[in-house]
Amino acid sequence: MFLVHFVFYCAIFLRFISKPKKITKMIDRNVLEELEKIRILTLLGVKTALSVEEAAVYTNLSKSHIYKLCHFKKIPHWKGGGNKFTYFNKKELEQWMLSRRVSTNDELEVEAANYTVTGKLRPAASRADAPATLKTVKGKGNGHKKTSVS
After folding, report:
1. Contact at 8 Å (CB) between 124 and 132?
2. Contact 54/44 with Cβ under 8 angstroms?
3. CA-CA distance, 12 to 9, in Å (whole number)?
4. Whole-number Å distance between alpha carbons of 125 and 116
5. pLDDT digit string (tens) for 89-101?
6. Which of 55, 28, 30 is nearest to 41 (CA)?
7. Which of 39, 40, 62, 83 has the maximum number of C-beta atoms within 10 A of its C-beta?
């Protein structure tokens, strides 16, 4: 039994030994990618203007998604070098990442209870997710009022 296990493990070992370059290239590539991420993360503490690669690491998004957000003007960015380079302000990126807060269930329950008692929503200034203004518009013909957001 020992001999069977020994031969089996020797065969596996020889299979990996026969392709050492492929394995070491794969390991080297992964190690280099991780080292590059570590290098970028250490620079992020010092820099205020970030490149696309650095912004991708900072926001944990892919570079292609960052470019797509820039194209549709969904993320604050700066152009430099005759519109050739794209840069990001670190503080603006942080504000953008924290701009869409989701209320907790407890907060929603308190808001619902307040609305049931008072019949009013909180003022828009105190609600980050509330529309800027609400207008009441008279409907056509049947006298019903509709609320629209403007």
Report:
1. yes
2. yes
3. 5
4. 20
5. 999 999 999 999 9
6. 55
7. 40
Residues 28, 16, single domain; the answer is yes
What domain count does the chain have?
A: 2
**Residue 50: what residue type?**
L
Task: For residues 55 and 120, give the distance between their C-alpha atoms in angstroms, rounded to a whole number.
Answer: 41
The DSSP bridge partners found for residue 89 are 49
Run of H or E residues at 86: strand 85-89
- Are 40 and 83 found together in one domain? no
> pTM of the entire structure?
0.54
For residue 129, being part of any structural domain is answered with no
CA–CA separation, 11 vs 141, rounded Å?
86
For 71-119, the pLDDT digits (tens) are: 999 999 999 888 889 999 999 999 999 999 999 999 999 999 888 888 8
**Structural domain containing residue 97:** 48-101
